[in-house]
Amino acid sequence: MPPSTPAVAARIRRREALQAVAAAACLPTPWAAFAQPSAAYPAKPIRLIPFGTAGGPIDIIGRIYGERLTQRWAQQVLVEPKPGASGIMAADAVAKAPPDGYTLMLTMSLTHTTVPMLQQKVPYDSLRDFQPLTQIATGGPMLIVAASCPASNLKEFVAWAKAKGRVTYGTWGNGSSAHLSGELFKRQTGAPLEHVPYKGESAAHIDLFGGVLDAAWANPATARTHLQSGRIKVLGITGARRVGTLPQVPTFAEQGYDGFLLDSWLGFLAPAHTPQPVVDKLVAALREITQSPEVRSKLQDMGFEPLGNTPAEFAAAQKAELPQWAALVKATGLTSLE
After folding, report:
1. What are the residue ranges spanned by the domains of the chain?
2. pLDDT digits (tens, 9 = 90+) for 73-127
3. Region for residue 180 given its phi and psi (left: phi exceeds 0; alpha: psi -120 to 50; beta: otherwise)
4. DSSP characters for 239-294?
5. Span 142-255: which CATH code?
6. Which letter, b or e, does each residue of 317-331 get, where b requires 16 or more Cβ atoms within 10 Å of its Cβ?
7. 44-139+263-332, CATH topology level
8. Averaged pLDDT score across all residues of the chain
9. Contact 94, 269 (CB under 8 A)
């Protein structure tokens, strides 16, 4: 073997140094795993999956936020509703998506929180499998009847239902806030109410207008639209306070029916384990959008109270509400989504 020369030794040292650098580049490091994605994020379109049907209030709100995120980041936000199965399909799609910030969900509290209490085989955990981003608003559903209904308030509705012997009410799904509200009202009053679930709010309202249903539940924005058209009466709202856009509609509590302080939230979630810098970037954008005067006005017009809290506050609120919804599920006597 020829003796080593200084030039050969230098070449060997350079080669070994390059190999060491290449090997080090392959090792995972905190800055490589987290700083790089956040710096580039978003580098491609984002999917936003709202609970409910296309054209429903959650879909409309999702599109409002999607448009503003698109303008902010010059990356398209694709709003893709996944209706049906009481929100399970939408939540499962997000829970199983890569935790990279490119799949988000906009959902409602009672649907997201109580469905796992009513379904034994939900393929996700409503707390463990999601990263809270921000609760953008709170609000509660309203009970509506056709304009031809003889009842104009809740007590008249109960009396009418008992005299009729059977009254059907439509909701946007088993286990939804509307379903739980209807069953709680049934247990409190003894009225012969029969639940009819639909895949979305609008489908139930079509059947209400067509005389197929006796009553239905509606989000405040939808109720206001139908009320202005003269097609319905709004009997009450389950929330803790009246809605500014429908101040004439009293709460259930004001009409003597306690236990209906169902101020459910609307909130954005991402898959669990989404990198913290990406979470921070999303939260900052979503909170800023929520606090903008135009979006606040739109949320209020739809019957919601704008919020826009932090992920920590969102997570704490979710954990704190679990006992309340568990008690409500028990009070209604529901044991499944069937």
Report:
1. 44-139+263-332, 142-255
2. 999 999 999 876 777 889 999 999 999 999 999 998 877 887 788 777 889 999 9
3. alpha
4. SSS-BTTBTTS-BTGGGT--S----EEEEEEEETT--HHHHHHHHHHHHHHHHSHH
5. 3.40.190.10
6. bbeebeeebeebbee
7. D-Maltodextrin-Binding Protein; domain 2 (3.40.190)
8. 85
9. yes
- Please, are residues 221 and 303 in contact by the beta-carbon 8 Å criterion? yes
Report the distance separating Cα 113 and Cα 166, nearest Å: 30
Residue 196 neighbours by CB under 8 Å, 6+ apart: 168, 169, 170, 171, 204, 207, 213
Q: Measured between alpha carbons, how far is 144 from 153 in angstroms, rounded to an integer?
A: 10
Q: For residues 197 and 171, is the Cβ–Cβ distance under 8 A?
A: yes
Q: Which two structure tokens, joined as six digits, stand for 221?
A: 């924005």
Please determine whether the domains at 44-139+263-332 and 142-255 fall in the same fold group of CATH. yes
- Orientation of helix 177-189 relative to helix 109-118, angle to 10°: 70
Q: What's the pTM?
A: 0.73
For residue range 212-243, list pLDDT tens digits in order.
999 999 988 889 889 999 999 999 998 878 88
- With the C-alpha atoms ordered 67, 72, 78, 83, is the resulting torsion angle positive or negative? negative
Within a 10 A sphere around the Cβ of 6, how many other Cβ atoms? Answer: 7
Q: Is the pLDDT of residue 284 over 90?
A: yes
Q: By C-alpha distance, which of 282, 267, 311, 266 is closest to 101? A: 282
CA distance 10 to 291: 62
- In contact, 123 and 92? CB cutoff 8 Å: yes
